[in-house]
Design a protein that fits this description.
314 residues, alpha+beta, Deoxyribonuclease I, Chain A, six-stranded mixed sheet, 5 helices, globular, disordered N terminus
Length: 314
């Protein structure tokens, strides 16, 4: 009898330790929901960008179908915090949150950006199992760029139309999360230059927080590949020091996933344009950083694949 009690106590201790270890893992994801915005949701169903042939009632019905497809992916990922791009306004994000809850995964905390993109009507948002605070719906600041490198008369300036910031706490640590959707590649050099200028705004905004010792996370659709100019600018690789870790590097993936790190395919070319970047300070509070790309296989949900990073905190 004593032996049975001893074994039972030992088993309880093992389960308790295992539960505690699991609780110390923070799972962060970013997912481009591909036009999950009510005014443009018709694009998901193969209609032209400027298409306007649906009634409001039918559009609502189609949005609900699309939201359910996206919700299934989000529920399968089951991250603690997920940064979303190409979503709509607050009502759209709330409908998505409820659709995820219907899949059995509850995100009681939500925050959304205040997009100024009147063309695509896209926004950014966060669904979180952890309380969010210090929410900034827009990232302030402007930066100049040259539309034509050899013509100073073409100098222009830009802000970030789709970006936000929020803070959360986990295991006694405070994290500042930037969610971004930077300028797309459509437009050639001009778009590239504008995207780097937007990256400069992000870099300038997080540096004071970084110098104060805060943990910084930058996540979203950055529309640039690993090592490309906008990513280098955000990380600080082209000025003084790379202050942010690139979790898209091979060393953070399992060996059998190295050929599947892409998050977006265009005209047969696969690249990772969705990123999660971490400040070096996060290395000081983690035992392990593991990255994976979630292949949902549902074209209605998105033409992007989600990036997931798990932090095993000390």
């Amino acid at each position: 009898m004593l032996k049975q009690k001893t074994n039972l106590v030992f088993l309880v201790c093992i389960l308790t330790v295992a539960a505690g270890t699991q609780a110390e893992k923070l799972k962060i994801a970013t997912f481009n929901c591909e036009f999950l915005t009510r005014p443009k949701v018709h694009i998901k169903f193969g209609e032209d960008f400027r298409f306007d042939g649906w009634t409001d009632t039918f559009r609502d019905q189609q949005f609900a179908i699309a939201a359910e497809a996206v919700a299934e992916v989000i529920a399968d990922i089951d991250a603690d915090i997920i940064a979303l791009t190409e979503v709509g306004k607050e009502a759209d994000v709330e409908e998505l949150r409820l659709a995820v809850a219907n899949q059995g995964v509850d995100y009681p905390h939500m925050a959304f950006g205040k997009s100024t993109d009147t063309s695509t009507r896209q926004n950014v948002a966060i669904l979180s199992k952890l309380p969010l605070f210090g929410v900034l719906q827009q990232i302030p600041g402007r930066e100049s760029y040259d539309k034509e490198l050899d013509d100073p008369e073409t100098e222009a300036d830009t802000g970030i139309s789709k970006g936000m910031v929020a803070e959360f706490e986990f295991e006694g640590e405070t994290f500042t999360l930037y969610v971004l959707h930077l300028k797309s590649e459509a437009g050639g050099h001009e778009a590239d230059a504008q995207r780097v200028a937007q990256a400069s705004i992000v870099r300038r905004h997080y540096l004071p927080e970084l110098h104060d010792g805060q943990h910084i996370i930058v996540a979203g659709d950055l529309n640039d590949y690993r090592g490309q100019p906008a990513i280098r600018r955000i990380r600080g690789r082209d000025d003084i020091f790379a202050d942010l870790i690139q979790t898209g590097l091979a060393k953070y993936f399992d060996d059998d996933e190295l050929d599947t790190r892409w998050t977006y395919e265009f005209m047969g070319q696969r690249n990772q344009i969705d990123h999660i970047l971490l400040s070096l300070s996060i290395k000081d509070v983690t035992d392990d950083i593991a990255a994976e790309v979630f292949d949902h296989g549902n074209p209605l949900a998105s033409d992007h694949r989600a990036l997931v990073v798990t932090l095993d905190l000390d």
